[in-house]
Amino acid sequence: MYKVKEIDSDIAEDRKAGDMLFVHELCNDVLKVEVGSGDIEMMFRLGRREQGKERPLLVRFTRSEKKHEVMGKLKGTLRHRLSYGYFSFIAKYASN
């Protein structure tokens, strides 16, 4: 996912918690797909953290069925309006 705002903190755990909150709100509240913490295998930002730049957020689901459910809701949508800004995504349909 691109253009996802990153929490401005020097503590990595705080930034990761903010990213997890974003993914849960996106899936559960906006897309109406139930996603728990056990559904996410890994999640991290790509690249180095720089002031004023938003790094892409990579999310890998534990089950491909959950990934396809989320991506199915996003299919055909390049931007989604959220209360805290826009984001865009690129789908990778390769197997987990």
Sum up the structure in keywords.
two-stranded antiparallel sheet, 31% helix, 96 residues, alpha+beta
Condensed summary:
The chain is an alpha+beta fold and 96 residues long. The chain has helices spanning 12-30, 64-74, and strands spanning 40-45, 57-61, 80-82, 85-87. It has one domain (12-87).
Report on this structure.
It is a single chain. The protein is of the alpha+beta class and 96 residues long. Helix content is 31%, strand content 18%. It has helices at residues 12-30, 64-74, and strands at 40-45, 57-61, 80-82, 85-87. The strands form 2 sheets. A two-stranded antiparallel sheet has the order 1-2. A two-stranded antiparallel ribbon has the order 3-4. β3 (80-82) and β4 form a beta hairpin. The longest helix has 19 residues, at 12-30. The radius of gyration is 13 Å and the shape is globular. The model is unreliable at 80-84 (pLDDT under 50).
Enumerate the spans where pLDDT stays under 50 for 5 or more consecutive residues.
80-84
Pairing-aware structural class of the strands and helices? alpha+beta
Element string (H = helix, E = strand): HEEHEE
Query: What's the number of helices?
Result: 2
Q: How are the SSEs ordered, and which strands pair?
A:
Layout: H1 12-30, E1 40-45, E2 57-61, H2 64-74, E3 80-82, E4 85-87
Antiparallel strand pairs: 1-2, 3-4
